[in-house]
Amino acid sequence: MEECKVEIRLKRSHYAKHHITNEEVRRRIENAIGPHVDLLTIVQQRKLKWYGHTTRSSGLAKTIMRGTVNGGRRRGRQKKRWEDNIREWTGLELRNTLRKSED
Q: Do the Cβ atoms of 86 and 48 come closer than 8 Å?
């Protein structure tokens, strides 16, 4: 039993010696490949671009996006919708984003 405790202690000290923080990993990556755009920023840009594209069209994607399909949402905590993300990122109400996307 004592041997197991010693082994666990050794593994912990080995891990503590080589532990690297997330900030350190990000810094090393930036030094290796140079400055880059964050993945979340890329996703936001692409979602906003697609949102503008669909609001200018008159297809099925626009119908689904606006929520005019029959039926209701499930019980419990609701999942985020596209319009929730758009509202959060732009700081505008949905009707204002629709106007701006059509301009």
A: yes
Q: What is the dihedral of CA 88, 91, 103, 39, to 10 degrees?
A: -40
Per residue in 10-57, pLDDT tens?
556 555 667 788 888 888 888 888 877 888 888 888 988 888 888 887
Dist. CA 8–CA 13, nearest whole Å: 9
Q: How many other CB atoms are found less than 10 A from the CB of residue 44?
A: 15
Instruction: Say if CB 86 and CB 46 are below 8 A apart.
Output: no
The reported pTM is 0.50
Cα(9)–Cα(5) distance, rounded to whole angstroms? 6
